[in-house]
Amino acid sequence: MHNTSNSPDYNFSLDHSLIQQQTFITRVYGWMSIALMITGSVAYLTATTPTLTQLIFSNTLFFYGLLILEILLVIGLSGLINKINAITATILFVIYSIVNGLTLSVIFLVYTQGSIASTFFITAATFGIMSAYGYFTKKDLTSMGNIMMMALIGLIIASVVNIFMKSELLYWIITYAGILIFVGLTAYDTQKIKNFNAAAQEEEAVKKSAILGALTLYLDFINLFLMLLRLLGRRK
């Protein structure tokens, strides 16, 4: 019987698939990193420009309008990814990272720059460890991911409720639970992105999936950072 696993064509196919997977992963993390840099730069620029700060935070309708726009961009990008081209998806992702930077500029007004920087590096280290775990582990993280997603829904509901309750106890429960949830989601989402079969997709589909993967990990990183900042940040 002919052993196809030792044939040159079979080995070439494996090498080609591996290269495509690595290229896809590089795209995902590349776009995620670009989006984080855009968000951070816009947030800092906004916080240090009194005119922009005044425009955003003195006008409640404008601020909540930005928040609604963020939600619409995420929903639109996720829901319409199969109906738009890769360029449009990329533009929407960049716009989202800019708008998110505008709203996140508030952290520079509330927390010291030193604590923001230290929390960012702690977040990056934690994210890196959990992302590496999700990438290299042989364990299927699907069940854990499903639990994390259900917990995230509960977290969102609790956060909305606490807007009205203003409970300090619930605030800290949400904070600690949020850290655990986004740590878990980082590993799960990384494994899900890794398992995407780039070799079986057309280039246009691969580009769009890379943007969607970058958005997913970007959201995990930002939310983990904000939860850790609640815990570790020093207020001015």
Question: Based on CA inertia axes, which overall geometry fits?
Answer: globular
Q: N-to-C SSE series? A: HHHHHHHHH
- Total number of beta strands: 0
Specify the helix fraction band.
over 70%
Structural class: mainly alpha
Domain count: the total is 1
Number of helices: 9
Distance between the termini: 74 Å
Give the averaged pLDDT, no decimals.
Answer: 92
Low-confidence stretches: none
Query: Which percent range describes the beta-strand content?
Result: under 5%
Biggest pleated sheet: none
Rg over CA atoms, rounded to whole Å, is 20 Å
Walk me through the structure.
- With 236 residues, the chain is an all-alpha fold.
- The chain has one domain (7-232).
- Helices cover 83% and strands 0% of the residues.
- It contains 9 helices and no strands.
- The longest helix has 40 residues, at 8-47.
- It is globular and about 55 Å long.
- The termini are far apart.
- The model has no long low-confidence stretch (mean pLDDT 92).
